[in-house]
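To: structure desk
From: M.T.
Subject: fold request, one chain
Message: Could you run this one when you get a chance? Sequence is below, nothing fancy, just the single chain.
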Amino acid sequence: MTVTSAYIHIPFCVRICTYCDFNKYFIDKQPVDEYLDALIKEMQVNNNRQLQTMYVGGGTPTALNLTQLEKLLKAINNTFTISGEYSFEANPDELTYEKVALLKRYGVNRISMGVQTFKPELLEILGRTHKTEDIYKAVDNARKVGIESISLDLMYHLPQQTLDDFKQSLELALKMDIDHISSYGLILEPKTQFYNMYRKGHLKLPNEDLGAEMYQYLMQRLEQSNLKQYEISNFGKIGHESTHNKVYWLNEEYYGFGAGASGYVDGVRYTNLNPVRHYIDAINKNEQPILTQTEPTFEEKMEEEMFLGLRMNQGVNTERFKYKFGLPIESVFGQTIENLLGRNLLQKQQQNISLTERGKVIGNEVFEAFLLNL
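Reply: Done. Structure tokens follow.
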């Protein structure tokens, strides 16, 4: 099977956010140019040059200066032909007209902007570098140069956030006629500033019921808009759904390039070395910069098919499951599916099994049921 998607990781940030657990480093005094050289070398070793989707994430890719950004963009274009979606993550205050024009010139057609909230006090708590007005400027810049699809990330269940705060952020995003919204509830991840503050009793989170109320409001409000839910946390206008992210949810293979990047190729899931210097050193020695490699068992692949596929509104297609694994879905997960149908957490529509609205609210519980099955 030919791999037609790739993810590139830029692990640098101008400031480290309080909630973030991705592989990232404060950009000051980092060997950024050396890292880009190593990243380019890793990409060029790859044999398949024809891609349908490319996603450049981080960290923050827009933390790179104009010269560094052009070096990366030029290398991507010299290495790959991208026929479909080409996405870049961006921070609003870093998305200057010059940077977004550069992205457009090299074929980027989708910007995913880390907005998180429009409320200044919450932006401060999250450790974000941008201000509310930067969001409007960045969206305006992206539109002026003709970026085809603009997505905003919004968070809920934040410390000190009320339901009204979240509603207001949602309304402000909708007022800008955004093409796509990704919205996630805060999860306290180990090794983050928030986690350490929480352990020391210096951070109080809203209760779980309020988080669930925010999520239900999100679904109901966006159902009334032109942004339609197509995955648990993602809503887009028709034609603006993230085709790259669907690769993950459909359990298909993809390349991962850069420090800490993950990939899935030839049935093997792998993660690259995290520390920037370790990654650079491995590349310079002409070694694969891989930290871990695991080949999921046949049973694990079927489990993955369920808990990834059920994230999407369309759910898991029973015919596709049978084609991929040579087994009817009922012979593997029949009892679990029946139990979840009985609890109104799953629904069956023709050849698709998907989450109900109630199932989406407690999605992790549904996914765990499939992990426990085998």
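Reply (cont.): The longest strand covers residues 149-156. Let me know if you need anything else for the meeting.
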